[in-house]
Design goal:
This protein is mainly alpha-helical. Among the domains are: 23-58, no CATH class; 83-124, no CATH class. It has five helices and two strands; from the N terminus they run αββαααα. It has a two-stranded antiparallel ribbon with strand order 1-2. The radius of gyration is 33 Å and the shape is flat.
Length: 125
């Protein structure tokens, strides 16, 4: 077991890597070398970059509604299906997966397939 974990640790490389930090940064033509001041400068930059960028985004002159199209009254359509299409879908169901529609197991749907295909289609609507 010990050798197994040793091998896993080698694969995932759990050893910490050497970290390097900048020894100097230049801000507004001024050189900063103090590690605490460098950290504060990075913190200041990343704490304010979002709001600074947001200020540069121009204000919208048009409402979002201007860009939307009129909704279509008949935008949803289901084409009629045939018993052959239903049979094909039932045949393709995987019996090793979870239950089918209305929690009916796929295996049962396959057994009853031909009986179901003889029922009027409007019964399922």
């Amino acid at each position: 077991m010990k050798n197994t974990w040793k091998g896993i640790k080698q694969l995932i490389n759990t050893k910490t890597k050497n970290k390097s930090f900048p020894s100097k940064i230049v801000l507004n033509n001024k050189s900063i070398t103090d590690t605490s001041a460098i950290a504060d400068t990075f913190n200041e930059y990343f704490a304010n970059i979002g709001s600074d960028l947001a200020k540069s985004i121009p204000h919208a002159t048009k409402s979002y509604k201007y860009f939307l199209q009129e909704p279509l009254s008949n935008s949803f359509y289901l084409s009629p299906t045939t018993p052959e299409e239903v049979e094909e879908e039932i045949t393709n169901l995987n019996t090793n997966k979870a239950s089918g529609p209305i929690s009916i197991p796929a295996k049962l749907l396959k057994i009853l397939k031909y009986l179901l295909l003889k029922l009027p289609f409007d019964l399922f609507i």
